[in-house]
Amino acid sequence: MTNDSTYRTEQRARSVVMVTYPDAHILDVVGPLEVMTGTKFFLPEGPDPYDVTVLATCAGPVRTTSGLTLTADRAFADAMPETGEIDTLIVSGGHGTMAALEDNALMDYVRAAAGRARRIVSICTGAMILAEAGLLDGRRACTHWWWCPVLEKRHPKVTVDRDAIFVRDGNVWTSAGVTAGMDLALALVEMDWGHDIALQVARYNVMYMMRPGGQSQFSAHLLARKAQDPAINETLDHILANPGDGLTVTALAARAGLSERTFARRFRDETGKTPAAYVETARVQAARVALETTATGVEQIALQTGFQSAERMRRAFHRHLGISATEYRERFRGAQPPPQIRDGPG
């Protein structure tokens, strides 16, 4: 086991309440809980880090969209009289969300429990439930990309970040779809138990510590964005924000206030990549977004993202993705737009 200074063996388990309902997405429920409860394998002997309770309108079986059945520990009505603090209130998402908005027992419970929760979390379309409960008014939030227009239309007081993997606004956390809930849960683990423990949980679950970039690509951006070394962390943010700049080792080392040799060593220690390899990956990532979301020519995108020529960008795409930039655009911009989503009541 790895000792972590943030863990106190005398501390009781943190209470986690998961709110679910018929036709919730099963991974929206079990994904975050697997990440959080798996923390116990990497902490010193003592109480489990999280004590999980699953709630639904009725205790017992709850059928999910996959056809698999979850078991709710208790009903909302039975949990309503409680007054103790909830560490983390999580609201799951799924195709049953619009029906859940009309479930008075669920909505009443979410409003009441939010008032005694240290932090409030939604997974995927669970943000619709938080918004309906008035918990997102005046806040930034995200949800699955498909549902962002619905959230914006129904709740104009919410600032919807369409591209975020997850958003934290004060004590309220919201995530994009499905696996983004696991990304959010890993961030909660890091907040509770520290970076080293979260890193071990990520490795155990074969996850990246953080996925930079947004959900507009509908695919994962797999660059590690966080570093413990502040100079390197700032450099990573600079690279991702400015892929078209002259990002040579000399320029980056000078920006970090380090010698080139020291910078290169620290950078590789933190990211597992050389600066040049990381920069190329960041540029491919930026080019992917531009190819998917704009009509800008391939040559111009190559210049904007630092490749200097379309040929260099083509070779980089082949190294990273196995196809050219032009083929990538044809593949990902040729899809039909998603079907309309029922707006639901109201």
From TrEMBL:
Gene3D superfamilies, per database record: 3.40.50.880, Homeodomain-like
Keyword Transcription regulation (UniProt): yes
GO molecular function: DNA-binding transcription factor activity; sequence-specific DNA binding
Entry keyword Transcription: yes
Transmembrane segments: none
Domain of life: Bacteria
Stretches assigned to the HTH araC/xylS-type domain: 233-331
Annotated keywords: DNA-binding, Transcription, Transcription regulation
PANTHER family referenced in this protein's UniProt entry, alphabetically: ARAC-FAMILY TRANSCRIPTIONAL REGULATOR, HTH-TYPE TRANSCRIPTIONAL REGULATOR RV1931C
Name this polypeptide is given: Transcriptional regulator GlxA family, contains an amidase domain and an AraC-type DNA-binding HTH domain
Organism: Tropicimonas sediminicola
